[in-house]
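Q: Here's a chain of 539 amino acids. Please give me its 3D structure as tokens.
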Amino acid sequence: MQEIPVIERIKRLPQQTEESLTDVMGVLMGIKDRRSVDHYVKWLRREVRNFRTPEMYNLLKQTYMYAGQYKFDDFMIAMEWKREPKARFWLPRRKVLEGKHGIASRIQEFIDDPEALFLGFSQPPGTGKTTLIKFLLAYIIGQEPKSANMYISYSDGMTKMLLDSVKSMLTDKEEYCFHEIFPDLGEPDTSAEYKTISYRRKGDFPTLGLVSMSGSVTGRTRANRFLVTDDLVKNKEEARSPERLDKLFGDYTATLTTRMIGDNVKQLMLGTRWSSYDPLGRMQDAHGDDPRYTFISIPVWDENEQSNFEYEHPDRYTTEKIRDIKATIDPADFECLFMQHGIEKEGLAFASDSLKYYNGVLPDGEPDNICFVNDVAWGGGDSLSMPIAYVYGDYCYIHDWVFDKRDKSVTKPRVIAKILQHKIKMGRTESNNGGSEYSDDVYRILRTEYGYSINMSHKKAPTNMAKLTRIEQHAPTIREFYFRSENCRDDDYRKAMNELTGFSFTVKNKHDDAPDSLAMMAEYVFDRSKIITVGKRPF
């Protein structure tokens, strides 16, 4: 490219001026492959921000209009340049959605990757999924106006709303900057009757056809680039009906996917999780190991129970708001809708309302035993899980818990500190993957550095299948344990309880450290043949 040496010479100037930066923009405008010079666009932006003049502000705007043709993130910023700050969708949420979660970048990677076939994307309700899709559809239309694409949702009302919104983005020059980003595109042909938007020839399938699951998808729409589905599951009633979910998934695989033309159509499925059997869950079960299929799931809060969606905008989820929601809705609904765990209430092994709780105050008198079990974590996102039990006869109180994903340099001192704090005299560690060495090292430190005597053992861990069997075998005993109530848990305890109450025997669980360590505890404290007698609570 003849233009590149010119830009490089300008970059080497001892000091940039408004005139030199304007010249760079002029040179960039003559380059057809805009994506190839993106690094120059970024450099230009950085330099422009050193000047506080109306001319340079306008030049900054031009960089976003320029890059909006090939970068989704920049497209959304550019589209809303004229909008009032309070009316904007992307910029108030960008710090979280892009900065924290990389949503725009991950969508861009999916679009640009020629091998990628499917992107599954789930977020809680009210976090901007549908609005994001509006921008994405406008972006696809601008990039490839001669392509054919489909959008499908659960209702005619939803598709009509999307049609009106996307049409407004393409045609409302007072509100949006679509024609400044794609100046060569005129006004599209639109049909409210058929719910289509098109820059293609009459008689061709439209650039975008919007259909609902309740309507007919045959005949008038096809997709040769993108098939976008958004919230296919209508409501809770549908989500709780296996028969209706079966039909829904059948319609998706047998009807919608047959509307794809060619082998390069990309499927983008967005939604809020309702069930383990919803379309997103089934696609992940079927294709989760295929590198051409990507699944992104963002829960309402992170592992520390801090909000993942606290925008610089009134329409946000604060941590306090999430806690209020969790306290008022069905635990299974919270796990599905807000944590994006596709589970069924009937499949929860340790639903929160099935467990026993105490206020953190132990019964009077000395316990018969104070002990621990330790399931050591060795990578893969697993947590070291070390519940500490105070045993009074047949009553077992899980009084403390170490639940930590960090490496042994962090967890080992914590384990030792808890043993000393509670004056524990016996404990067991699973010996898999270095667990025996971990246990021996803890024992050695306690003896040599603290002069503390403890009866410690280690036992080989079962296989994954055997682990599930062990959890299931000891589930009745675990349900008889007493756990701290929500208002008297520390962070570790809270994380462990979240994993425990979200564990299911009917779906694949991402992690099972909490229930597995409690099964170890049940096995360790009580004889396998012994049945816990439920008697009067010792308060």
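Q: Can you summarize the key feature?
A: The first strand starts at residue 118 and ends at 122.
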